[in-house]
Specification:
Elements (H helix, E strand, L loop, with lengths): L1 H26 L4 H18 L4 H18 L11 H49 L4 H16 L3 E4 L9 E5 L4 E7 L7 H67 L5 H33 L7 E4 H10 L8 E5 L6 E4 L1 H17 L6 E8 L3 E8 L6 H4 L23 H11 L3 E7 L2 E9 L7
Parallel strand pairs: 5-7
Antiparallel strand pairs: 1-3, 2-3, 4-6, 7-8, 8-10, 9-10
Helix pairs in contact: 1-2, 1-3, 2-3, 2-4, 3-4, 4-5, 4-6, 5-6, 6-7, 7-11, 8-9, 9-11
Keywords: ATP-binding, Kinase, Membrane, Nucleotide-binding, Phosphoprotein, Transferase, Transmembrane, Transmembrane helix, Two-component regulatory system
Enzyme class: transferase
Protein name: histidine kinase
């Protein structure tokens, strides 16, 4: 109603202005053919400021009647005596109608252009929202927020593929249906709202396709890395198992085939068999522990253990320490910690084994224990070749070994320190390594109970 009233006001004002202008030009002696242009301009202005054909056609008829009444002989009469005037009025009416039609079409094109511009801006806004969003849930959430903000309609967006109908819009990726947009409103949607929803479905399809492609690539990458790691582990295991087994077989065959061996020779060969078997046991123990850790089946059986006993038990399991200068520095008072004794001995064995690899005979290995406020600190330091800078930051990862060390001294497959880290963290402690000028230093802490060590 307000719009119609406004158009009528425009109509009255413009008709009044064109009449005033035409009368002014007529008083100045301007010919009626030129005055006719004033009425055409008036019709165009009315068509521009109003919508539809009605007001433009009405303006054309009123303008023709006014022009005929005022300027066609006989004046102040609607009778037309001259055929030229009749043709002039006829062409004026035709021109006015055509101008009204073109103006109306132009206005509709402007409305469509503005509508398309608005939809393009909305789609750009959605694309911008989805550009840096990762995660399928967040993509679906952003799409839902966009649709509900744009057209005020409740929706449910999911990866569930539903049968397409007027309330379900499929989300299509490259060559597959990835999900659906379900419209929860019971009110019918107009064409513009459906365009926005379908366009949003296309944008969501592109974003989901990108995310799913990335996830699939990551899965393939992880699978390839696992396969590569498995192959590396199998090669390392086969190599490290074959070495002690070869030594055991060689020493045992020598003992069986040689009848004139002295007691010293027999003892030496038996000791070699013992050392190789012990080495083999350590490798198998590390493999079993790592499999438990990765499968989440590592269970701690904690008991109160004396620190001194754990250290000396680990030393007894490493005969090669006899060739090193081992110094054990522990507090004079008995120090208890609540740990899984077997696993803690394994930690000491792995770190000491590592020290043996990178030291020579007569080099010093120091085991220092310090009681702190709420934890016990263990430091195992050697005077060997130290830690290479290229592995220092990754030394506690699986299958990390120093490639600068000869294969003969590099016993193990790079699991020992990774197992130490897992065991220490399972006990609530921390472990780290330092490369010092005169060798390597490994430090780890275990939480302690203050009441036990007073």
């Amino acid at each position: 109603m307000k719009e119609k009233l406004r158009y009528l006001v425009y109509f009255g004002i413009i008709i009044s202005i064109e009449l005033f202008c035409s009368l002014t030009l007529n008083s100045m002696g301007i010919r009626k053919e030129n005055i006719l242009m004033v009425f055409i301009v008036g019709v165009l202005l009315i068509s521009t400021f109003t919508k539809g054909y009605f007001y433009g056609l009405l303006a054309s008829i009123v303008s023709v009647l006014c022009f005929n009444f005022l300027y066609i002989d006989p004046n102040y009469d609607f009778h037309i005596s001259d055929p030229n005037d009749f043709m002039l009025i006829l062409f004026f009416l035709m021109t006015s109608v055509i101008a009204c039609s073109l103006t109306d079409r132009f206005q509709k094109q402007i409305i469509i252009s503005k509508k398309n511009e608005g939809i393009s801006k909305q789609l750009y806004s959605l694309s911008e929202r989805l550009l840096n969003v990762s995660g399928i849930e967040y993509i679906l959430l952003k799409g839902k927020q966009y649709i509900e903000e744009s057209i005020q309609i409740k929706t449910n967006i999911s990866l569930e593929i539903k049968e397409e109908n007027k309330n379900v819009i499929p989300i299509i990726g490259m060559n597959r249906v990835l999900g659906s947009i379900e419209i929860l409103s019971h009110q019918g949607l107009n064409e513009d709202q459906m365009i926005i929803i379908k366009a949003a479905a296309n944008q969501l399809g592109n974003a989901l396709e990108r995310e799913l492609t990335y996830l699939e690539q990551e899965k393939i990458k992880v699978a390839m890395e696992r396969e590569h790691m498995l192959n590396s582990m199998l090669r390392s295991i086969s190599h490290d198992l074959r070495t002690p087994l070869t030594g055991i077989v060689g020493a045992s065959q020598l003992m069986m085939n040689q009848d004139h061996l002295t007691n010293e020779d027999v003892y030496s060969l038996a000791k070699d068999i013992h050392d190789q078997a012990h080495w083999l046991t350590q490798i198998v123990e590390n493999i079993l522990n790592m499999s438990k850790i990765e499968s989440g089946n590592l269970v701690l059986h904690k008991n109160l253990e004396v620190v001194d006993d754990l250290i000396y038990e680990a030393i007894q399991h490493l005969p090669e320490l006899e060739k090193r200068n081992v110094v054990v520095d522990v507090p004079q008072d008995l120090l208890f910690i609540n740990v899984d004794g077997k696993l803690m001995v394994q930690v000491f064995i792995n770190i000491l084994n590592n020290a043996i690899k990178y030291t020579k005979e007569k080099d010093q290995i120091t085991i220092h224990v310090k009681k702190l406020e709420d934890e016990v600190q263990f430091m195992i330091k050697d005077t060997g070749s130290g830690i290479s800078k290229n592995i220092l930051d990754h030394i506690f990862e699986e299958f990390v070994t120093d490639t600068n060390v000869s294969n003969d001294s590099q016993k193990g497959i790079g699991l020992g320190l990774a197992i130490c880290k897992a065991i220490i963290q399972a006990h609530g402690g921390k472990i780290w390594a330092k490369d010092e000028k005169d060798g390597a230093c490994f430090i780890f802490t275990i939480p302690s109970d203050k009441e036990l060590n007073v």
